[in-house]
Amino acid sequence: MIVSLKGEEREVALAEVEAVSASAQGEYRALLDSTVTAVTSGQELSEYQAQELDRIVSLGLQTGRIRALYGPAGEQAALRTYRRLPGGREVAASAAAVNEALGSLEGRSLDQISITAIGPGVFSVSLVAGGAELTVRLDGSGARLASVGV
Asked: Which long-range contacts (CB under 8 A, 24 or more apart) does 17-25 make?
């Protein structure tokens, strides 16, 4: 997987990977060090390197670490990086699928909408419009269409 990072995107990603690498040992440290080398030189990332960069950037974004250390511009750079990685691509694809399903409700009269808390950080949004019903699940993995009824 080729992830071409320049400027602040590269700086933030490398700083985060290097921070994790500093306390890593053995094979994991070797993976992180090879990820740093690949990002620095613009080489193609292996599946494992891309997954690990994804995990590190995701964690830094979710915890607020990246914004706290690098400010809003650093956070935006990390978000651009995340969108190019496997997790970011997957979340974008699931959001696109949900938007496509929601588009089927366009022009219909909204009869009911409700939000249900399923568990910690997990919600469902149900919409009933013109005889159609859609339920969207929202959790740490993104938005997914949970059910469709006509």
From this structure: 17/52, 17/53, 17/56, 20/56
Q: Give residue 109's domain range.
A: 97-149
Residue pLDDT, tens place only, 22-57: 999 999 999 999 999 998 888 888 889 999 999 999
Residues 80, 25 share a domain: yes
Q: What are phi and psi of 126, to 5 degrees?
A: -110, 135
Locate 33 and state its tokens.
């060090």
- Where are the strands (E) in the chain, listed by range? 110-119, 122-129, 132-139, 142-149
Residues 108 and 80 in one domain: no
57 falls within a domain: yes
Model's pTM, two decimal places?
A: 0.79
| Domain end residue (candidates: 84, 106, 139) | 84
**112 and 73 co-located in one domain:** no
* End-to-end Cα spacing for the chain: 40
Q: Scanning the structure block, which residue is given the tokens 């022009």? A: 107
- Domain tally for the chain? 2
Tell me phi and psi for residue 26, to 5 degrees.
60, -140
Q: Is the dihedral of CA 82, 62, 68, 22 positive or negative?
A: negative
What 3-state class would DSSP assign to 24?
A: coil
